[in-house]
Amino acid sequence: MTYVLMTAAHNEEAFIERTIRSVLSQTLLPQRWVIVSDNSHDRTDEIVESYARQHAFMRLLRVVRAPGRSFSSKVIALHKGSKLLEGVEYEFIGNIDADLSLEPCYFEGLINHFRNYPSVGLTGGFVYEESGGEYRSLRRNDVRDVGHAAQLVRRKCYEAISGYAVLKYGGEDWYAQTKARMLGWQVEALPSLRIYHHRRTGSGSTSIKNAFRLGKQDYSFGSDPIFETGKCLRRVMDWPYLGIAFARLAGFIWSYVVTEPRAVPDEFISFLRQEQKGRISSVLKRGRVEHNSLVPTGPFDATGR
Which of 197, 219, 252 represents a domain boundary (last residue)? Predict the structure, then answer.
């Protein structure tokens, strides 16, 4: 089974060499790896070129655009890079960010999972970031959620979802996996495969600003208001994230106030909300079970004695 990779890199001289070495150490190498230097003005191009000269499967594409940061520029860069995949035979296509490293068996592990489960359309590992001198699994890691950091998509699934979507507030990974499930594919993250992320999530902007943007992203995807409120309120109970939770909810509410256009079609919104309502029902059901397990069922009084 064969695969290809794409990477969008903007001024990644501090991290990209570690990423390149990580891919070169894989037990199963890609048929082609296209690295798109997205308007980089540091040593990113130089570093990539030095390795591309030694490894025939690597390609560098330079993209020049207007300066500034946007959450759609990454996917636009990937779309341009995908042109260099034409004529290459592959069964899986994936993204790998330019600021991480992987265990040597990472991609072989993903492909083995595809082989064992033909209904899986998209898979990836769990993301780890450094905290307290060691790498720890991110709290948001979930087997139902495959992040964009280092993922593979079955080619048939990738073509069915029309590739990665260009979205104003980002979230191409969320859109891809939700649309894949909507079309009948399974999506699964594998806890046994680790992604070591060397730049802290959201470090490109302040935490509050990033949270406000995420709230606007949630609205643009049509997230259910009850689900969104519950998600943010749950984070409020964890005091270090108090301001971040309120900022995300504020971004969501603000988009409602200004009636910002949605980024996705109505059928996507309907499917997403059904999924979210299912998760709400699951949480409520679990809560009732836990509550009932605390209620005495034998000949005891209310104190349990």
Answer: 197
| Secondary element (H or E) of residue 152 | strand 150-154
Give the pLDDT confidence of 247-276 residue by residue, as tens digits. 999 999 999 999 999 999 999 999 999 999
Look at residues 192, 185, 158, 179 and name the one whose alpha carbon lies nearest to residue 222.
179
Q: Which domain holds residue 266?
A: 207-291
Q: Residue 89, class by beta-carbon neighbours within 10 Å (0-12 exposed, 13-18 middle, 19+ buried)?
A: exposed
Q: What is the pLDDT of residues 167-206, one digit of tens each?
A: 999 999 999 999 999 999 999 999 999 999 998 765 445 7
Query: Are residues 54 and 182 both part of a single domain?
Result: yes
Whether residue 296 lies inside any domain: the answer is no
Number of Cβ atoms within 10 Å of the Cβ of 171: 21
pTM of the complete model: 0.87
Q: What is the pLDDT of residues 4-40, one digit of tens each?
A: 999 999 999 999 999 999 999 999 999 999 999 999 9
Q: Quick one: 188 and 246 in the same domain?
A: no
| Residue 180 Cα distances to 35, 227, 285, angstroms | 25, 21, 27
Whether the predicted pLDDT of 224 surpasses 60: yes
Query: Which of 129, 163, 197 is the endpoint of a domain?
Result: 197
Contact 90, 153 (CB under 8 A): no
Torsions phi, psi of 153, nearest 5?
-125, 130
| DSSP tag of 142 | B
Region for residue 52 given its phi and psi (left: phi exceeds 0; alpha: psi -120 to 50; beta: otherwise): alpha
Contact by Cβ (8 Å): 232, 245 = yes
Let me know if residue 123 belongs to a domain.
yes
Report the interhelical angle of 44-52 vs 16-24 (nearest 10°). Answer: 20
Q: Based on the structure, what is the number of domains in the chain?
A: 2
Same domain assignment for residues 18 and 149: yes
User: What token pair was written down for 132?
Assistant: 């307290």
Residues 6+ apart with CB under 8 A from 135: 128, 129, 194, 196
